[in-house]
Design a protein that fits this description.
235 residues; 6-stranded mixed β-sheet; elongated; 26% strand
């Protein structure tokens, strides 16, 4: 399953907020065997949201959108998603009832847009907040507040599928450039995908559809490189 993530928020673009949601979603989706192939950050602007969601929906199996839900003037994500799929925004009876049960709120207490979802959308309750999410076609619309996003994603994560991937990590005390030939050799010898990430040593991530292949490849690298820690941290 090929996934695009769309993060909405001016604060992300100017650096006021670090986009931890995209990283967290990428990790969780990867663990389920789904492949994140695009991450895009857009401003709180209706046209930009509609354009990117529409393009992503045409190219990928599913789109996960985070941020821009709620009653304030710049919360235009739901409207942008509706435009992307060619639907109108409509008051959602289930969302309204849920909001009232949640804490005595109603649409009359604030901006009625809070409970407006694209026509025909599936309502997603917000277990950690107020603004509801939605699923329309293959677009999953989640809040931007991390705790709210994580809780809501938990309700739908089993809908994201793919081939389970097994991962081994090896931390190597050599320059990445010096490892290039051995990493290429590693991929020729084993049916694995290899990624390398320099920092405090070079973290080599070995992924495979077969657990044995991943372990064998990691074992080969440990024999042919200057390993710092064969149980490299999973971060």
């Amino acid at each position: 399953m090929r996934i695009a993530i769309v993060s909405v928020g001016d604060e992300l673009l100017v650096g006021d907020t670090v986009n931890t949601n995209a990283a967290w979603l990428g990790e969780r989706l990867d663990a389920r065997g789904a492949t994140v192939e695009r991450v895009t950050t857009v401003p709180d602007r209706l046209a930009d949201i509609a354009q990117v969601v529409n393009e992503s929906l045409a190219a990928y199996d599913a789109v996960v959108v985070t941020g821009g839900l709620g009653p304030t003037h710049d919360d235009v994500t739901m409207e942008g998603v509706a435009a992307a799929v060619g639907r109108s925004l409509e008051p959602h009876a289930e969302a309204s009832a849920w909001l009232a049960d949640r804490g005595g709120y109603s649409a009359d207490d604030g901006d009625p847009r809070t409970v407006e979802l694209p026509a025909g959308a599936r309502f997603l309750p917000n277990d950690e907040g107020v603004a509801p999410g939605a699923v329309v076609e293959s677009v999953y619309v989640l809040p931007g507040v991390p705790a709210e996003m994580k809780a809501m994603f938990g309700r739908v994560e089993n809908e994201f599928t793919g081939t389970e991937t097994y991962v081994e990590r090896v931390l190597v005390d050599e320059p990445e450039s010096a490892l290039a030939d051995r990493l290429a050799d590693l991929q020729r010898r084993f049916d694995v995908t290899v990624g390398s990430h320099p920092g405090d040593g070079v973290r080599v991530k070995i992924s495979a559809a077969d657990a044995g292949a991943a372990k064998d490849a990691a074992g080969w690298l440990r024999e042919h490189a200057n390993v710092i820690d064969v149980d490299a941290a999973d971060d």
